[in-house]
Amino acid sequence: ASPHHGIGFTALNYKTGYINRVTSYATYAYHIGLNETTSLAAGFGLGITSFNIDRSKITLATSSDPSVDETIATFKKVKPEMNAGLWLYSNKYFLGISAQQIIPSKLSLIDNAENKSTLVPHLFATAGYRARLSYDLSLIPSVMVRYISNLPIGVDLNLKAHFQDLFWIGGNYRNQDGFAAMLGMNFAQKIHISYAYDLNKGQYLLSTMNRGTHEIVVGFLLKNKHASL
Asked: For the purposes of burial, counting CB atoms within 10 Å of the CB of 148, is it exposed (0-12), middle (13-18) or buried (19 or more)?
């Protein structure tokens, strides 16, 4: 493909109990062909994240918890957000590295440097290969490795089966954390709809309270002659 650009916008809203996190950022990528079969893309995203904490929804075991200031009714902080990555791809394989939350930040419910949560960068590496079993059917195994400081290295193993690039079905296994089932469909190479059900069985964060997560993704391909879904 000849050199070309890509732009996008992402908006996320996470709400868990008394914590609400809203992230929005614009994305840009530049694609360049390295040879007749392989291309390289470099991209980044810039935006903001807003953290909101409703103190009234926090139930304390003791009224004098040093990690929460009793005078705070609602806590809000806005921080800059930056992501970046490289993507090497062809019609047979892909390799990628990326970083999210590049700009570290500290959050605290009280004015005390000893009681602050630190938001640290998240690093990812991924690779996959398309194996054609027949003219209509392809299998795409892939792996993703993620690194977050002070946490064990995470590994995701994925396998997707594509039929005529019209629909696909797949599964994911996350090391010591859980698994997911996925399926998707393409409509006229313009609209892509996919669904995933994630069941967390790990030992980290809120895994003991997780009864499963549903995820629906809708994608649109607009005036892009260089790629297909």
From this structure: middle
